[in-house]
User: What shape does this take?
Amino acid sequence: MRGFPKVSAIVTLGGGFTPGVFWCIIAATMAKPATANAARFYRLGVFARMLVASAAFVGNRRVSSRVLVMQIYFTFVQALGLATMLALGIGAAVSLLGLNFLQNISQQHLIYQLLVIVVTRELGPLLVAFIVTARSATAIATEVAGMVISHEVEAYVSVGIDPIEHLAVPRFLGVTISLLLMNVYFSVFGLAGSFVIVQTLHPLPISAAYYFGSLVQSLSVADLAIVAMKSVAFGMIISTVAITEGLGVERASTEVPVAGLRAVTKSFAGCIAANILLSAIYYVYMLA
Assistant: This one.
Protein backbone atom coordinates (compact mmCIF):
# COMPACT_ATOMS: atom_id res chain seq x y z
CA MET A 1 0.00 0.00 0.00
CA ARG A 2 1.40 3.34 -0.94
CA GLY A 3 2.11 5.83 1.81
CA PHE A 4 3.15 3.26 4.44
CA PRO A 5 6.80 4.34 4.87
CA LYS A 6 5.78 7.99 5.27
CA VAL A 7 3.09 7.25 7.84
CA SER A 8 5.31 4.82 9.71
CA ALA A 9 8.01 7.46 9.98
CA ILE A 10 5.49 9.98 11.26
CA VAL A 11 4.22 7.59 13.93
CA THR A 12 7.78 6.76 14.95
CA LEU A 13 8.84 10.39 15.25
CA GLY A 14 5.68 11.47 17.01
CA GLY A 15 5.15 8.63 19.46
CA GLY A 16 8.39 6.81 20.13
CA PHE A 17 9.02 3.09 19.75
CA THR A 18 5.88 1.25 20.83
CA PRO A 19 4.36 -2.09 19.78
CA GLY A 20 2.12 -0.14 17.41
CA VAL A 21 5.13 1.49 15.78
CA PHE A 22 6.82 -1.91 15.55
CA TRP A 23 3.97 -3.26 13.44
CA CYS A 24 3.97 -0.11 11.31
CA ILE A 25 7.69 -0.59 10.59
CA ILE A 26 7.06 -4.20 9.62
CA ALA A 27 4.29 -3.08 7.28
CA ALA A 28 6.52 -0.46 5.72
CA THR A 29 9.35 -2.90 5.01
CA MET A 30 7.34 -5.75 3.56
CA ALA A 31 7.63 -6.59 -0.11
CA LYS A 32 5.07 -5.46 -2.63
CA PRO A 33 3.56 -8.93 -3.24
CA ALA A 34 2.50 -8.97 0.42
CA THR A 35 0.49 -5.75 0.13
CA ALA A 36 -2.66 -7.28 1.62
CA ASN A 37 -0.75 -8.57 4.64
CA ALA A 38 1.05 -5.25 4.98
CA ALA A 39 -2.30 -3.44 5.06
CA ARG A 40 -3.49 -5.66 7.91
CA PHE A 41 -0.29 -5.11 9.91
CA TYR A 42 -0.49 -1.39 9.18
CA ARG A 43 -4.02 -1.08 10.57
CA LEU A 44 -3.12 -3.28 13.53
CA GLY A 45 -0.16 -1.00 14.29
CA VAL A 46 -2.19 2.19 14.09
CA PHE A 47 -4.97 0.61 16.17
CA ALA A 48 -2.48 -0.46 18.88
CA ARG A 49 -0.89 2.99 18.85
CA MET A 50 -4.29 4.67 19.27
CA LEU A 51 -5.24 2.37 22.15
CA VAL A 52 -2.04 3.26 23.99
CA ALA A 53 -2.47 6.96 23.28
CA SER A 54 -6.15 6.89 24.29
CA ALA A 55 -5.26 6.07 27.90
CA ALA A 56 -2.99 9.11 28.10
CA PHE A 57 -5.54 11.27 26.28
CA VAL A 58 -8.34 10.49 28.73
CA GLY A 59 -6.14 11.29 31.73
CA ASN A 60 -4.95 14.68 30.47
CA ARG A 61 -6.61 17.88 29.35
CA ARG A 62 -5.45 18.66 25.86
CA VAL A 63 -6.25 21.04 23.08
CA SER A 64 -7.38 17.94 21.18
CA SER A 65 -10.29 17.63 23.61
CA ARG A 66 -12.12 20.16 21.48
CA VAL A 67 -11.67 17.83 18.49
CA LEU A 68 -13.17 15.02 20.58
CA VAL A 69 -16.21 17.12 21.51
CA MET A 70 -16.73 18.23 17.91
CA GLN A 71 -16.42 14.64 16.68
CA ILE A 72 -19.11 13.49 19.12
CA TYR A 73 -21.28 16.42 18.05
CA PHE A 74 -20.91 15.60 14.36
CA THR A 75 -21.20 11.83 14.72
CA PHE A 76 -23.87 11.58 17.42
CA VAL A 77 -25.84 14.81 17.77
CA GLN A 78 -26.16 15.67 14.09
CA ALA A 79 -27.24 12.12 13.23
CA LEU A 80 -30.09 12.01 15.77
CA GLY A 81 -32.73 12.98 13.23
CA LEU A 82 -31.95 10.09 10.90
CA ALA A 83 -31.54 7.68 13.81
CA THR A 84 -34.92 8.73 15.22
CA MET A 85 -36.75 8.08 11.95
CA LEU A 86 -35.11 4.69 11.49
CA ALA A 87 -35.73 3.67 15.10
CA LEU A 88 -39.40 4.65 14.98
CA GLY A 89 -39.90 2.99 11.60
CA ILE A 90 -38.18 -0.28 12.51
CA GLY A 91 -39.84 -0.46 15.92
CA ALA A 92 -43.32 0.23 14.56
CA ALA A 93 -42.89 -2.24 11.69
CA VAL A 94 -41.72 -5.02 14.01
CA SER A 95 -44.58 -4.30 16.42
CA LEU A 96 -47.35 -4.24 13.79
CA LEU A 97 -46.16 -7.06 11.54
CA GLY A 98 -44.82 -9.22 14.35
CA LEU A 99 -47.93 -8.86 16.44
CA ASN A 100 -50.22 -9.80 13.56
CA PHE A 101 -48.17 -12.90 12.85
CA LEU A 102 -47.85 -13.95 16.49
CA GLN A 103 -51.57 -13.51 17.11
CA ASN A 104 -52.28 -16.05 14.36
CA ILE A 105 -50.35 -18.66 16.30
CA SER A 106 -51.52 -17.46 19.74
CA GLN A 107 -48.01 -16.38 20.77
CA GLN A 108 -48.52 -12.62 21.00
CA HIS A 109 -46.65 -12.52 24.33
CA LEU A 110 -43.42 -13.10 22.36
CA ILE A 111 -43.64 -9.66 20.75
CA TYR A 112 -41.53 -8.17 23.54
CA GLN A 113 -38.70 -10.63 23.00
CA LEU A 114 -38.94 -10.04 19.26
CA LEU A 115 -38.60 -6.28 19.77
CA VAL A 116 -35.55 -6.75 21.98
CA ILE A 117 -33.92 -9.12 19.49
CA VAL A 118 -34.51 -6.96 16.40
CA VAL A 119 -34.34 -3.38 17.70
CA THR A 120 -31.87 -3.67 20.56
CA ARG A 121 -29.65 -6.68 19.93
CA GLU A 122 -29.34 -7.47 16.22
CA LEU A 123 -30.63 -5.00 13.65
CA GLY A 124 -30.36 -1.82 15.74
CA PRO A 125 -26.57 -1.84 16.34
CA LEU A 126 -25.89 -2.68 12.69
CA LEU A 127 -28.15 0.12 11.40
CA VAL A 128 -26.46 2.58 13.75
CA ALA A 129 -23.07 1.43 12.47
CA PHE A 130 -24.22 1.99 8.89
CA ILE A 131 -25.41 5.50 9.75
CA VAL A 132 -22.08 6.38 11.34
CA THR A 133 -20.14 4.78 8.50
CA ALA A 134 -22.04 6.68 5.83
CA ARG A 135 -21.60 10.00 7.59
CA SER A 136 -18.40 9.88 9.62
CA ALA A 137 -16.14 7.34 7.91
CA THR A 138 -16.16 9.36 4.71
CA ALA A 139 -15.69 12.64 6.56
CA ILE A 140 -12.77 11.39 8.68
CA ALA A 141 -10.99 9.67 5.80
CA THR A 142 -11.24 12.67 3.47
CA GLU A 143 -10.28 15.12 6.22
CA VAL A 144 -7.18 13.17 7.26
CA ALA A 145 -6.24 12.54 3.61
CA GLY A 146 -6.48 16.27 2.94
CA MET A 147 -4.15 16.92 5.89
CA VAL A 148 -1.61 14.46 4.53
CA ILE A 149 -1.68 15.95 1.03
CA SER A 150 -1.41 19.52 2.34
CA HIS A 151 1.57 18.50 4.55
CA GLU A 152 -0.26 19.36 7.78
CA VAL A 153 0.67 15.99 9.30
CA GLU A 154 4.34 16.58 8.53
CA ALA A 155 4.05 20.05 10.03
CA TYR A 156 2.79 18.54 13.30
CA VAL A 157 5.81 16.24 13.41
CA SER A 158 8.23 19.08 12.64
CA VAL A 159 7.12 20.97 15.77
CA GLY A 160 7.14 17.87 17.99
CA ILE A 161 3.38 17.14 18.06
CA ASP A 162 2.35 13.50 17.84
CA PRO A 163 -0.18 13.31 14.97
CA ILE A 164 -1.62 10.07 16.32
CA GLU A 165 -2.45 11.64 19.68
CA HIS A 166 -3.56 14.97 18.22
CA LEU A 167 -5.44 13.85 15.09
CA ALA A 168 -6.28 10.17 15.32
CA VAL A 169 -7.12 9.55 18.99
CA PRO A 170 -9.84 12.24 19.35
CA ARG A 171 -11.61 10.87 16.27
CA PHE A 172 -11.11 7.28 17.44
CA LEU A 173 -12.63 8.00 20.85
CA GLY A 174 -15.31 10.31 19.44
CA VAL A 175 -16.67 7.73 17.01
CA THR A 176 -16.59 4.93 19.58
CA ILE A 177 -18.36 6.99 22.26
CA SER A 178 -20.89 8.24 19.71
CA LEU A 179 -21.77 4.71 18.60
CA LEU A 180 -22.38 3.65 22.18
CA LEU A 181 -24.60 6.68 22.86
CA MET A 182 -26.48 6.30 19.59
CA ASN A 183 -27.24 2.64 20.23
CA VAL A 184 -28.78 3.58 23.57
CA TYR A 185 -30.78 6.33 21.87
CA PHE A 186 -31.85 4.02 19.03
CA SER A 187 -33.06 1.34 21.44
CA VAL A 188 -35.02 3.81 23.57
CA PHE A 189 -36.77 5.39 20.60
CA GLY A 190 -37.24 2.09 18.81
CA LEU A 191 -38.91 0.47 21.81
CA ALA A 192 -40.72 3.43 23.38
CA GLY A 193 -41.54 5.48 20.28
CA SER A 194 -42.90 2.49 18.42
CA PHE A 195 -45.46 1.96 21.21
CA VAL A 196 -46.82 5.45 20.65
CA ILE A 197 -47.06 4.90 16.88
CA VAL A 198 -48.73 1.50 17.26
CA GLN A 199 -51.24 2.85 19.76
CA THR A 200 -52.06 5.64 17.31
CA LEU A 201 -52.44 3.45 14.22
CA HIS A 202 -53.69 0.23 15.79
CA PRO A 203 -54.60 0.67 19.47
CA LEU A 204 -53.79 -2.32 21.66
CA PRO A 205 -55.67 -3.23 24.86
CA ILE A 206 -52.57 -2.85 27.04
CA SER A 207 -51.28 -0.06 29.24
CA ALA A 208 -47.95 1.69 28.88
CA ALA A 209 -46.86 0.35 32.27
CA TYR A 210 -47.54 -3.25 31.21
CA TYR A 211 -45.78 -2.72 27.84
CA PHE A 212 -42.59 -1.27 29.30
CA GLY A 213 -42.61 -3.72 32.20
CA SER A 214 -42.73 -6.61 29.75
CA LEU A 215 -39.88 -5.11 27.73
CA VAL A 216 -37.71 -4.77 30.84
CA GLN A 217 -38.43 -8.40 31.75
CA SER A 218 -37.43 -9.48 28.24
CA LEU A 219 -34.08 -7.68 28.52
CA SER A 220 -31.21 -9.56 30.12
CA VAL A 221 -27.74 -8.60 31.26
CA ALA A 222 -26.35 -10.61 28.35
CA ASP A 223 -28.40 -8.50 25.92
CA LEU A 224 -27.01 -5.27 27.34
CA ALA A 225 -23.49 -6.66 27.33
CA ILE A 226 -23.59 -7.76 23.69
CA VAL A 227 -25.01 -4.40 22.60
CA ALA A 228 -22.20 -2.59 24.43
CA MET A 229 -19.61 -4.91 22.89
CA LYS A 230 -21.00 -4.37 19.40
CA SER A 231 -21.07 -0.61 19.88
CA VAL A 232 -17.44 -0.46 20.97
CA ALA A 233 -16.29 -2.92 18.30
CA PHE A 234 -18.11 -1.10 15.49
CA GLY A 235 -16.80 2.27 16.67
CA MET A 236 -13.21 1.02 16.75
CA ILE A 237 -13.52 -0.60 13.33
CA ILE A 238 -15.05 2.45 11.64
CA SER A 239 -12.63 4.96 13.14
CA THR A 240 -9.52 2.82 12.58
CA VAL A 241 -10.38 2.09 8.95
CA ALA A 242 -11.22 5.73 8.23
CA ILE A 243 -8.03 7.04 9.83
CA THR A 244 -5.74 4.48 8.18
CA GLU A 245 -7.30 5.07 4.77
CA GLY A 246 -6.79 8.79 5.21
CA LEU A 247 -3.18 8.39 6.28
CA GLY A 248 -2.50 5.97 3.42
CA VAL A 249 -2.69 8.58 0.63
CA GLU A 250 0.36 10.13 -1.00
CA ARG A 251 0.36 13.42 -2.91
CA ALA A 252 -2.42 13.45 -5.51
CA SER A 253 -5.63 15.26 -4.59
CA THR A 254 -7.57 12.62 -6.55
CA GLU A 255 -6.70 10.13 -3.81
CA VAL A 256 -8.87 11.97 -1.28
CA PRO A 257 -12.32 10.83 -2.54
CA VAL A 258 -10.92 7.34 -3.17
CA ALA A 259 -9.83 7.16 0.46
CA GLY A 260 -13.37 8.09 1.52
CA LEU A 261 -14.92 5.39 -0.67
CA ARG A 262 -12.51 2.75 0.58
CA ALA A 263 -13.19 3.73 4.18
CA VAL A 264 -16.95 3.28 3.72
CA THR A 265 -16.63 -0.05 1.90
CA LYS A 266 -14.16 -1.57 4.35
CA SER A 267 -16.05 -0.24 7.37
CA PHE A 268 -19.27 -1.84 6.12
CA ALA A 269 -17.50 -5.16 5.61
CA GLY A 270 -15.73 -4.98 8.97
CA CYS A 271 -18.91 -4.17 10.90
CA ILE A 272 -20.85 -7.00 9.24
CA ALA A 273 -18.07 -9.48 9.99
CA ALA A 274 -17.82 -8.28 13.61
CA ASN A 275 -21.60 -8.48 14.00
CA ILE A 276 -21.65 -12.09 12.77
CA LEU A 277 -18.79 -13.04 15.10
CA LEU A 278 -20.22 -11.35 18.20
CA SER A 279 -23.72 -12.71 17.55
CA ALA A 280 -22.31 -16.22 17.14
CA ILE A 281 -20.42 -15.86 20.44
CA TYR A 282 -23.61 -14.63 22.13
CA TYR A 283 -25.73 -17.56 20.93
CA VAL A 284 -23.04 -20.10 21.78
CA TYR A 285 -22.85 -18.59 25.28
CA MET A 286 -26.63 -18.60 25.70
CA LEU A 287 -26.96 -22.21 24.52
CA ALA A 288 -24.08 -23.44 26.67
About this structure: DSSP finds eleven helices and no strands in the chain.
